[in-house]
């Protein structure tokens, strides 16, 4: 493929940057961690920004104009996504997956009523989503989930619980994976429902993440009633849609991780150029050779990371381009997700070392360097090895589907 962006996508990148410079205040504290913009005092500004993004035409760019979209290609959506994360623009995904996962799946497999109900609302920034996959005892093994949806006449009654459900506290809808048949064969008996979060029987319990934000939630479904109109696609047919969904999720989550990494790396390099010794003193650390910004080792370390960031971007571009060509890129999406999660963790650790003891200070500490963002990313990046499937899941997919190694 040609990795150069089209003139339209280059213009889109400039437009997103200009929008961020105009609309995102310099003291904005959101966008450093996955889903933190939906927490507490950050939520009002996040909700306000949704309408502004909608007026730019960016939220519905991937789906048909009939439903409020602009019919831009997947690559354009990826460019918007990575730039919005780089500039820490809130509401870019309308909750978790609203734009990059839920919208495209509804456009591909939803009923006409579902398309007309949800896609225009997403495009105008009026509908936020969360995703209900993981459960306390199933994790990345979606086939082992136990949340059930039992038919009762023309209705379904949902019982069970989901965990690590980011943005559930503000979401209007949940993209919910349930068990609708007691099949034991892998992938059988699973159904996706679109569930209103204000429906009686839905309860939400916040969970603080490692960085202290309640971005995660445990969600309980106690005899929650929905109708057949809430089924996405065919009943018991969810496994047929999961490859597309997971391809989109892993590609875009990987691109987002690379963007957060790139932003921290850029800020670190700018800081070292402008401030000299990042510790502000001659305090020694475990690796004192990295404490002098003009040291050869420090320059080489930063150069290596910059090269790896660019390689990660190209991996994401390749997966998006393959999807745009209509190819099955399930393995390529796993490559993006695996590479990006490990790089984000490695970069955060390297920047912490470069900053010395000051890198361990939180954002609200007077002596924190880079606004405490290295410390925040260091902690929040731990979950990147789980998001969208664990590191082990991604390695297994790459090993069996790409390298042809035997499965278990």
Helix and strand run: HHHHHEEEEEEEEHHHHH
Rounded average pLDDT: 89
Our estimate of the beta-strand percent is 5-15%
**Rg estimate, integer Å:** 21 Å
Named at the architecture level, the CATH assignment of the largest domain is: Up-down Bundle
- Per the CATH scheme, the topology name of the largest domain is Butyryl-CoA Dehydrogenase, subunit A, domain 3
CATH class of the largest domain: Mainly Alpha
Query: Could you tell me how far the N terminus lies from the C terminus, measured between alpha carbons in angstroms?
Result: 34 Å
In terms of topology, how is this protein built?
Elements: H1 7-23, H2 43-55, H3 74-86, H4 98-109, H5 112-123, E1 129-132, E2 148-152, E3 155-162, E4 173-179, E5 190-196, E6 202-207, E7 216-227, E8 231-232, H6 242-275, H7 296-324, H8 330-355, H9 373-380, H10 391-402
Parallel strand pairs: 1-4
Antiparallel strand pairs: 2-3, 3-7, 4-5, 5-8, 6-7
Question: What does this molecule look like?
Answer:
With 408 residues, this protein is an alpha+beta fold. It folds into 3 domains: 7-127, Butyryl-Coa Dehydrogenase, subunit A, domain 1, CATH 1.10.540.10; 131-237, Butyryl-CoA Dehydrogenase, subunit A, domain 2; 242-402, Butyryl-CoA Dehydrogenase, subunit A, domain 3. Helix content is 43%, strand content 12%. The protein contains 10 helices and 8 strands. It has helices spanning 7-23, 43-55, 74-86, 98-109, 112-123, 242-275, 296-324, 330-355, 373-380, 391-402, and strands at residues 129-132, 148-152, 155-162, 173-179, 190-196, 202-207, 216-227, 231-232. The strands form 2 sheets. The protein has a 4-stranded mixed β-sheet with strand order 1-4-5-8. Helix 4 (98-109) packs antiparallel against helix 6 (242-275) and helix 6 packs antiparallel against helix 7. The longest helix is centred in the middle third of the chain and has 34 residues, at 242-275. It is globular and about 70 Å long. It starts with 6 loop residues before the first helix and ends in a 6-residue tail after the last helix.
